[in-house]
């Protein structure tokens, strides 16, 4: 075992073989969150929970989740079809096919599809535990939401269980007390 730059200790011997997951969509877990479809490509089982990958399908004119930040994980979004709209704090930008959006921990963000076409993105979570947030949301929607829609209450309860802090709509980005690292106040 050799230490890596004063970090974790890793073996200097190879272990598992490379894993090829053929284009076998029918074998992938599908998570439905209202009109949003998530195709789970890797849930962390093959990566010792270091990374999970989903393919997100957003129909046209779909607003995204409330703006939020993650306390414990990184996210990336690679747009593979269409144009997604992202918000970070009070900035708005569009990401088109081939664009990569990187979201480090404590970076406020949200995304949606403001276009008339479909959007498809590859979304990664590092570490992989956050995939379970989507599973929890789907379960909560089945039990609580009679109309199959994600309510702010369902979303915020699920977010808080996965170290994700929702930002209230009236959030003041100029108020240091309400910026990342502090839980926002007045969120219902």
Automatic annotation (TrEMBL):
Pfam families: Cupin_2 (PF07883). It comes from the Eukaryota. SUPFAM superfamilies: RmlC-like cupins. InterPro entries: Cupin_2, QDO-like, RmlC-like_jellyroll, RmlC_Cupin_sf. Gene3D superfamilies: Jelly Rolls (2.60.120.10). Residues 169-188 are annotated as: Disordered. Residues 64-124 form the Cupin type-2 domain. PANTHER family: PUTATIVE (AFU_ORTHOLOGUE AFUA_8G07350)-RELATED. This is RmlC-like cupin domain-containing protein. Signal peptide: none annotated.
